[in-house]
Structure formats: C-alpha cells, structure tokens
C-alpha cells in the first residue's frame, strides 16, 4: 500500500515513466528503501488495472527517433481520490509491522542454550553504529542544509531513522535489565553474562 500510494502521489506532479518514478521516490527518501524497477512497473500495471492510472505515449525521444516510444503513466481522477484519502488518513497502528528483532528476542528467551544477553549487546553495538551513521548524514550533504523540498524530505526520513535507532537502544537497555532480573530469579534458561557498568541502570517495569 505504501509504495502504491507514494507512486500515485508522485504522479500528481505529471506523467512519468517507471524509471522517473523510481528516481523521484529515491530522491525524496535518500534511497533508504530502494525500489526495483520491476516492482515499479508491476505496481503501475496494477494501478492501471484498478483504474487509478492510465498510460500515455510521448512519441519517443527526439534525440533517438528510431527508439520505441516511451510509455508514461498519468494519474486518473480515481487515483487523485486515493491520494487524497491516503494523506487524510492516519497510518494505522493496530497491525504493527513485523519487527525481526522483537521476534528474535521473543523466541530466544524461550529456548535453552541461547545467549540472549550477548544477542542484546551485539544488537546494541550494531544499532549504535547505525545511529552514528545517520547522525553523520544529517550533518553533511543535502540533508544538512535542506533548501529544496526534496532535501527536506530526505532530512525528515533521516530524523525518523535517528529516532527509531534511539528508541531501539533504549528498549535494548530495558531488555537487558529485565534479563538480568529474570536470570537472578532463575527464570532464564541461559544465565545472563555480567552487564557492563554503563548499562547498570535499572529500568522500571
């Protein structure tokens, strides 16, 4: 639904062909979620089937008159209605997307022999590295001084990634405190390893 709606919203700017749509999407999102051009054309085919876009031909390039005419797509009135509904409707939180890390931890704590504390510590190190990379991107390049709408869009995506990473680190700290407590109470299959001093803070449950 997200890619479908985003592509429709971009087509409100004017007709585009698949490679243009992919470029416009990735420019705004900093290629955080790269699109396969095959996925773009598959989505366009479905949008056309549903009456939300229609294809148009621009007659081919003047620089390459022998080249086959490039097929572009333009949004229909039904498509504009779908875009308006997308922008006016909050993103539902009733069905959260699958979180691989949460699923991994949920399974790990139930199985004997899994070093859950080591898992948490390795994940924290990886997430901290990602947070540092995102922060560096925010301080450099086009996201540092967003003077174009596309640059502001990329900067906002980076903000989201930073906040997500910060929240994940905080959650991992919480998990580690819970694991330490569970190990002390004999509720954890694998004894927790000693926790570094900088993560000694207890998190209330």
TrEMBL record:
Signal peptide: none
Annotated Gene3D superfamilies: 6.10.140.190, Winged helix-like DNA-binding domain superfamily/Winged helix DNA-binding domain
The protein's name in its UniProt record: PadR family transcriptional regulator
Transcription regulator PadR C-terminal domain sequence ranges: 98-180
Domain Transcription regulator PadR N-terminal: 7-84
Organism: Nocardioides piscis
